[in-house]
Prior knowledge:
The protein is α/β, with parallel strands linked by helices. Helix content is 27%, strand content 28%. The chain contains twelve helices and 24 strands. It has helices spanning 71-77, 97-109, 124-134, 149-159, 184-201, 222-226, 273-277, 325-339, 364-376, 402-411, 421-427, 448-455, and strands spanning 2-9, 15-16, 32-39, 65-66, 81-82, 86-91, 115-119, 141-145, 163-167, 204-209, 229-234, 241-249, 257-263, 266-269, 288-295, 298-310, 318-321, 346-352, 384-386, 389-390, 396-397, 416-420, 434-437, 440-445. Strands 8-7-9-10-6-11-12-13-14 form a nine-stranded mixed sheet, with helices on both faces. It starts with a strand and ends with a helix.
Amino acid sequence: MKTQTKYICSECGYESSKWLGRCPACSSWESMVEERVQKGGRGRTPPPRGEVRKIQEVRSLGERRFKSGIGEFDRVLGGGVVEGSLILIGGDPGIGKSTLVLQVMERLAQSNVKILYVSGEESQEQIKLRGDRLGVSSENLFLLSESNLEGIFAEIETLKPDIVVVDSIQTVYHADLVSAPGSVGQVRECGGEIMRYGKGRGVAFFLIGHVTKEGAIAGPRILEHLVDTVLYLEGDRHHQYRILRGVKNRFGSTHEIGVFEMLEKGLIEVKNPSEVFLSERRNGVPGSVVVCTIEGTRPLLVEIQALVTPARYGIPQRVTTGTDSRRLAMLLAVLEKRVGLHVGSSDVFTNVVGGLKVDEPGVDLGLLISIVSSFKNRPIGAEVAVMGEVGLGGEIRGIGQIDMRIREAERLGFARCLISKNNLRGLNHHSPKRRSSNSIEVIGAESVEKALDLLL
């Protein structure tokens, strides 16, 4: 049996017989990794041929879901774990992936769901220590320390669980491959075998994956393509809040988020994130503005802070936390060109409170107003929420789901809401300037200059 060397792109899985500085498939630099494969190994049995049928003849199958009872987790999955689904969870080391999954499995096991937790990194005693801290003690939760894929499948055939957790996919290896566990070939092959096994037997799999320094799940992107759901656990280890974000979901809405708080006894769901993110806000502070962003199907009110100070060390700094730095550069250019506010010689720092990452254009207006508020040292009223997209011409553009955003601001007691004039027309055709909804006053503005006149 001969051994052959191939070079595989760690981003897209492209294979080449020689090393290349740039992948011709995805144009990634320095992504080709050397892999050794056996040539002439045992052949695989060809899969049975499928039957071609008309779509009207195919019987629809109802989704059987396992609900964990943790509302934030079930929300991200679209209502619970679908039978036979393949779920990939990624996140930075130490962020709480294993802790969250172990807590969810405990809740599922309490509902008479049989769980097998497979760990290739920790012994059963180590998992038990974490379980004691989290209060995990269900009789339906079984532990296995194994990294050989065939050995894992053999235990599954014996135990016949409903859900299997693999922690982590980078530690599992296939005996037919000579490459080391965690390599591109091993991750791709093991992921494909698990997918075929789970779909064929109706077993749901949770795959916990390490991430690279760029924040993507280690291994080829094909691993994210073959799974049904991709979840990322985000957050700063120095903050107590964690965001579980769904970036792909075949059984629910994408970009849904769940908010958790890291405490001594594990991750606790936050049922009212908007109230939590605004709980420590100080009134009367220049540079503080409340905006409403949409994450999946959920509106979230968050505080954006800005600090503008004269640059003392030559080149002005532009530091952003939780927002896109290129978006900030565009808004500063709009202020210079359309409003005449010269901030080019000032340091600008912006922050989204609570560690949340906001990337939708609906927070443009709030970010821009927070910068002007700090620059002029004039606070925005504590009862005001701001929503709108800013164009390069200085106009305020309408955003989607404005009714949902306004209702969230009203629910938390805000008295005024500044939005785009185009959105205002859609809310009430009879009043082009302002509209009153129970206890909140909604004001429309067509340009950045008009919005600044209304608030500052």
